[in-house]
Amino acid sequence: MKPILPIVLKTPRLLLRPPVEEDAATLECYLSDRRIAETTAAIPHPYPRGGALDWVAMSDDRWAEGTAATFVVTLRENGKILGVISLLGKSPRDFQAGYWIAVPFWGNGYATEALHRLVRYAFNHLGLPCLGARHFAHNPASGRVMLKAGLHFDTVIPGGSSRDGVFYDSVQYRITAEDWRMCVAI
Asked: How many CB atoms lie within 10 A of CB 79?
């Protein structure tokens, strides 16, 4: 795929920017909380020392490969790191959104605001034809974020996701660029 050029995205409260090495310590601190890992299939617990630094380097590589656009979610007013949001995929039709917000910032609408902005970026800037997202069935709050950001429920895949060898139902959401543009026009 073509490289995706790093970009900074803005919302009224947030700045979504590519990760830098200086973010690693804060990210590792947040990721040491088991509650973050329990809501994702890919974040290990305990989070390894130095893992965030490796993740920053991997994020840079994925931008260059065109397989991901990864952003650190920060407060616009002071730059405080709140979490991470990404677009990941190997072809334009299979890109998925993924995100996590640090526990101290849960319940403030930051994930919804960040995902809404990421969807706009996916369709208006990258020209993706569709976008998906999924969550563990035991994390319905993430599904509410997806719905508020404009995605539509697609299906439940029994045992469709796993974590530490345990399989969980995966709840899938999706939106096409055409549907999104129709919603925005309303």
From this structure: 10
